[in-house]
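User: quick one
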Amino acid sequence: MADRSAQNLFIHNAAQVITPALSTSGPSPALALRVIEDGAVLIIDSKIAALGPTRDLKSDPRVQHVPQLNCTDCVVAPGFVDSHTHLVFAGTRQLEYEKRIQGTSYEEIAASGGGIQETVRQVRRTSEDSLLEAAKQRCREFLDHGTTTLEAKSGYGLDPDNEFKILRVVRRLREDSTLPVEIVSTFLGAHEIPEEFQKDRRGYVNLICSQMIPKVAQENLAEFCDVFCERTVFNLGESRQILLTARQHGLKLKLHADQLTRNGGAQLAVELNAISADHLECIEDRDVEALSHSNVVATLLPGATFHLGKGNYAPARKLIDSGARVALATDFNPGTSPTVNMQMVLSLACSQLHMSPAEAFAAATLGGAMALNRHGDRGSLDPGKAADLAIFDVPDYRLVPYHFGMNHVRAVIKDGQVLFDHWN
Amino acid sequence: MADRSAQNLFIHNAAQVITPALSTSGPSPALALRVIEDGAVLIIDSKIAALGPTRDLKSDPRVQHVPQLNCTDCVVAPGFVDSHTHLVFAGTRQLEYEKRIQGTSYEEIAASGGGIQETVRQVRRTSEDSLLEAAKQRCREFLDHGTTTLEAKSGYGLDPDNEFKILRVVRRLREDSTLPVEIVSTFLGAHEIPEEFQKDRRGYVNLICSQMIPKVAQENLAEFCDVFCERTVFNLGESRQILLTARQHGLKLKLHADQLTRNGGAQLAVELNAISADHLECIEDRDVEALSHSNVVATLLPGATFHLGKGNYAPARKLIDSGARVALATDFNPGTSPTVNMQMVLSLACSQLHMSPAEAFAAATLGGAMALNRHGDRGSLDPGKAADLAIFDVPDYRLVPYHFGMNHVRAVIKDGQVLFDHWN
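Assistant: Done. Structure below.
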């Protein structure tokens, strides 16, 4: 957690201050981006107090008494809210990456004991402290790239001891006062059928429902429950059973839906009123329609499609145009999306998904906050919200996705505190 | 230019030292990558003196007397040689980027006076000194991302005064002792038909051939001549005329070939024995065949395909498998590839072009050096070559493209001099 002493700051002369809003002026609610030229943000007591053109905010009497940060030629934005990451793991999977490049499919690698199972083997033999150290380093990299809130899933343990080990790591990250990133915890015991249950799928689903979920809820180890709903992983019926159990125990719901094949995951998310349905590469028009009439946040993870070398990006345009709520996230994980850089996800969203830079920024901030049920306090620069900001060293927000594959972050502010400023 | 005083350095304990080589063991010459585990590099008098396992090099008597750089958990590689950039320009084109995302094609934007013409208007009204300052800043960004040699084209002036203005900027960059990057100059007056010659194409081709090329050669303003050979730009006959004139004046040849349509550019490159044919997104099997039987370096620019949101990446696999010489470059420019990060180009090459990480590294170093006729002195860590190195903060070279959209460079060494080292 960040230093909780009250922080005051006047950010001014920014080329642009940008902030998303849920616009209700159209036929259905949509994320819009407000752009303030020569903008300023006033932070009082670690919260956004005011924002607007610099010339207007300068006359606010509170401005005289607070430290100042001149952001000439920079863009000031809400920090990214990365609502889908597999933060805690051991090992990297570059050998599998090389195999995929040579033509072996992700599904073939998984079927031969690679993929998620490979990371599970490594996590099981790694201590909690070692997992913690690696995850801390990754959190610092997320912050360096402008992410101030991120979700962290379990799912590389696949037995009670190891799933809880991962969730304890997430708890320790949340409680670490030297690590000023907001972390939201998700239980994903249903990430894969573990090797020891390959001939007893029902046994593993029962283990999740009867032992793991109750303990996760009782010990407050996670806020969300997620399932990898996929033909070759957990089918629709198993996914429903697990999610209903989680809901009964007070967990909020997420779903890996329709990534590799279309199997009804998005429809299940709508049926169960999940907070988010993630991936959606293979959804059909009827699924777009269902999502657009729901409050489920359609969370798009183009980094995975890119890294897997596939061309079937999720139908972002259809989702947005039909009025669905859209978030963007990294899907950071060692198999299919090994990047912490949300700016790269914006580039993918713009160049490959045909989202405008404004739509992409809104989806990566307020969209992500909605997907984590944090939109009351995070994801935009509305007065009263926590002062979580990323400051980019470009004079137009559109240049962040445009200059792709780079890190444009000059400074990050978390709860009003300047974590670093590469100019000072 | 870098500090020309003789530099000595012993780099050791690297997780891997990698260096490409032109292997002639197969049916046709191909780029291969040599990987030395726990490797070391000895630099004497700013040149590579030796490389090998740390335990072997430690006993070299010269090691005792030189500064040391411990590279535990890092990869040591030749600096990137980025053989295709449009380094010198004014303005950015994010509005055009937004239009393309919304569905307007690159060709439509060009036909309506946008695209290259927009940058030409901005370059013409920008002073030589302002262009120089902007280009210097970009050179520093290239160095920060591990590029130690880069090509710089003119092509945003399109009249003698402005083309020569750009080439003078390139010369001043080359002569700037504070800027330790190697720069190779290319004349690309034939980048587009300027607006004032739209009704007199022949007039512009004559201007290039009778005035611009002779002066470029006479004043030694460029080493290469390049042409954008494309149905809507310079056709095959015009391209041949310009390149033949350039050759007569002693310039080496490059060609923007078959990018947007297949129009015979690659075949022309082979016919004229050009040093490189660049882009090649639309080549057919007969063009692959022709290139594979030539010494023309097939220079692939996947950043442009990505940024344009197109799916037709160049057929890298066919080119490599048929024995063509392949280079990778950024195509850095404000319209179609606004990135300086060769690591991102590696990710594109691996994920989208199905090049192995080893092939991609070789193409981005020795391949680039071959495309600039610098392979005698740059592009690999062979003893006797200039000591240009990039050091990556990952323990396996495959992790550089794998962790996409990021900058893994920990340190850069140019002519034996440590330019920066983020660890020290």
